[in-house]
Design brief:
Helix content is 44%, strand content 17%. Helix 1 packs across helix 9. It is of the alpha/beta class. Helix 1 links the parallel strand 1 and strand 2. It is built from nine helices and seven strands. It has a single domain, classed as Flavodoxin domain (Rossmann fold, 3-Layer(aba) Sandwich). Strands 1, 2, 3, 4, 5, 6 and 7 form a seven-stranded mixed sheet that branches. Its EC number is 1.6.5.2.
Length: 209
Amino acid sequence: MAYDLGGPVRVAVIYYSATGTVYELAKAAAVAAEKAGAEVRLRKVREIAPDEVVAANRMWLEHVEATRHIGEATLEDLDWADALLMGAPTRYGAPAAQFKQFIDATGPLWGRGRLINKIASSFTSTATAHGGQESTILALNNTFYHWGAIIVPPGYADPVQFRNGNPYGTSHTSQNGEIPPGEVQLAAMEFQARRVVEVAQAFKRGRAG
């Protein structure tokens, strides 16, 4: 693939969120990546649920209205980025269908080798404490394997990880959207974003050298 060796690291934070939990994590990631020196695009994937289904859930409808200003993710955003932070809530232990549909549309880029060597990391949220956080992140990472991306997990590379407790990627238990991410979860997301930027910067320097 053609790799841009000049300028700052370019990070696309791409997410799906129904009631706003993953959105809060994505915002924290975008801010942290910018502070770390990256050029950042924050993008949501398109909502595909029927309008009547969204309207039947007050929190879902309010979130759709509140985030109309966020641009929708396109394949060009993936092509543009050096690094990807991708997040989705779980649905039965796997990424939400809205996010999966976006992933399934990346075949043209994948077929041209445009996703090889992207630095990639993932995050999630569930309604309950054991609702599929790790399995959702692992499912997201399965896509990265097929792309030939370079997966960068947060691991236990920062003290906050011993408080947040998920080396696979930042995760949060929202209790059906009632509990937003707290200080620890947001700090973990910020660390994960910084780590992604640092690894991407090192990779770009190595390629340029």
